[in-house]
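Box S2. Input/output pair 1.
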Amino acid sequence: MSYLEYTVKSTPTGLRKILFLNWPLTLLLCSVACVGFLMLYSVAGGSFTPWAEPQVKRFAIGLVLMVAIGMTPIWFWRSIAVFCYGVTVILLIAVDLFGEEGKGAQRWIDLGFMRLQPSELMKITLVMFLAAYYDWLPPEKKSRPLWVLLPIAIILLPTALVIQQPDLGTSLLLVMAGGGIMFLAGVHWAYFAAVIASGVGLIVAVFQSRETSWQLLNNYQYRRIDTFIDPSADPLGAGYHITQSKIALGSGGWTGRGFMQGPQSRL
């Protein structure tokens, strides 16, 4: 019996299922969100507009959707996992063909009423597909090379499409999310050791390739790395936000300056 079959048989359906939702996690999420609302209220000088009010509305919509999704039978999400993944891959290809470009990146599809970023959907559908795959796969096959190569291909296909946009951050998130699912599924540790070793070599190659004919990253991506390592190198440019955050933390100390008394919000 797969985990999904066990879950379907042991979890009540209908309105009774609401008792089985992860309410501690939901309350924690709401608490963190409320802190964010207060921060936006403070930054606006004691006003819910222009930042806190729309954020509250978006969070409320997201919370309702989250509960609705949690109430949906899990077998439904498994049944559409492959379809959702395939549609998202098609959307990523569409971005490459006729996506909207902005600030040097081509990541969005203009739907008229909104701009859709398929790479964000892929963060969800990739996990859905891999979870469905490992629920279907017999445990004794999880570490066999053929059955390991297939999920690797599932991960690398959207990753390659996202890198083309370019969006290195989301690409890394897809790889880490996919690798996390494989790890939790019980794939042998030797595969991860090989990937980590390859990753170290890739990082070395990235730094060695800078300002060469075979440079692996774009210049702006190297600048982001420089800013991460030393924000003070460009305090009024790329390192501005990090520098201001450090000033705010330093001026507040352990106890803080008090609600709505932050000096950096008045710049």
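Box S3. Input/output pair 2.
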Amino acid sequence: MDSFEARLQFISVIKNLQKTLGVSKRLDNDPVQFYLNHYEQHYEDFHQCLFDTATKMDSLDRLNVVVYYSKIVEVLHANQSELNARVLNQLLLPSIDAMLLLALPSQDWKALTNLSACIDIFQRCNGLIGGIVELQKPTMDSHLPLDKLQWYTPSEHPSIHYHESFQRAATLLQDRSAKQQHMFQQFKLFGLCPVPLSRPQPSTQTIIHRMESDREKHKRLKENLWVLPRPQASILNEFEFRTLWESTPQEGLTKGDYRNMSDMNRIAHASYSVK
């Protein structure tokens, strides 16, 4: 696969993350597995595609890209090699601040819904490298109106070492946490408060895409409710049987039990009757 074809396929993978990320059971459709299959020759192209493609998305959709980024980091860190160390230390980890900024852009209040997930991703990545940065409690002057707040934006110059990028990312998360708390405080004090809208406004296509993504997430949540894992790997649980057996009245079967057995016997005969 040449560089051009690899970029095209990877862009397609990124655009379909809301359908495949974390739910795909097939290796040929798993976005993380696609990266692992081809990153040895194309990791620089893939890294550029992550940012180029995510920049064109709505800020809410970019969270899928950030989650995808974190899964790649975790997999490469778990499989130590010279190549993986180079990809992590030279590309992925030094760009964590820029990656989080995609999901938490300046002057975008609706993007603050991504904050909790971004903090969780940052904490996991920070833990992988030994917890070099600690998030501080955000502080904010509650008397300032929302449209007068200054938003922190990390430097556009790429970090030479990932220590600097993690420090920038921590500052970014603290700033966005302060903005979120300030907005909540304004709501408690004054009720509904005008929030400056981000520019440009989402298009009709973006809104429809968000609706489809929400439906897909809702469907995945329902699928998780359909599966009830048993306490043990076996389909039968001895503890469950013993509990039911010991709860049986000592005087033996009741009339209701005999009635149920008769009904089950009748249903079984009807099911296997030959006409």
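Caption for Box S3: Residues 114 and 127 are 20 Å apart (CA to CA). The chain has a mean pLDDT of 81.
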